[in-house]
Design goal:
Layout lengths: L1 E2 L2 H4 L9 E6 L6 H13 L8 H5 L5 E7 L2 E10 L4 E9 L8 H15 L4 E7 L3 H6 L3 E2 L4 E3 L2 E9 L2
Parallel strand pairs: 5-6
Antiparallel strand pairs: 1-2, 2-3, 3-4, 4-5, 6-9, 7-9, 8-9
């Protein structure tokens, strides 16, 4: 499945029209690029990496990637929870593209993907600094502040329609 979100086509964002999103398999040739992006943007700044066990635990998740032209520039994971609930995690966008609408477009794509797969609720643990980003996309804070991977987070959720 490869689509560009409706909001992207409507011109809501500022990047060129070569932006596209798709779900890939952990066996896809692009998967190592996705791991590299997550390491550089999310893990290494915290002094963390991935173990083979970490990556093996993600094999059943949905792996969403965003391309600008042929360059893989964004990614996230969708992890089935129970029933109709998915957990969004490991959201990463290349540093030179942050703040330009790509993250929003990817989340919107992921929500449409989730609905297509029969899910009706998205949850996530947001780093404290990005809570306003998710609130603008309709997510609500559902927990007190807590520490995860050494930094403050909040659990957030959204009903999908």
């Amino acid at each position: 499945m490869s689509i560009v979100s409706e909001k992207w086509r409507e011109g809501e964002f500022s990047l060129d029209e070569q932006l596209r999103f798709e779900a890939i398999s952990p066996d896809a040739e692009e998967y190592p690029q996705m791991i590299d992006l997550r390491l550089r943007i999310l893990r290494h700044p915290l002094g963390l990496g991935f173990t083979p066990e970490d990556l093996a635990a993600e094999r059943e998740d949905f792996h969403i990637v965003g391309y600008l032209g042929r360059r893989l520039v964004a990614c996230l994971l969708l992890c089935p929870q129970s029933g109709e609930r998915l957990k969004m995690r490991q959201v990463a966008v290349e540093e030179d593209l942050q703040g330009r609408g790509m993250g929003s477009a990817m989340v919107i794509f992921s929500e449409a993907f989730a609905i297509e797969k029969g899910f009706s609720e998205m949850v996530l643990n947001a780093r404290e600094l990005v809570v306003p980003f998710y609130e603008r996309l309709g997510y609500e804070v559902m927990s007190e502040r807590f520490i995860e991977v050494t930094i403050p987070h909040f659990t957030m959720q959204k009903r999908l329609s």
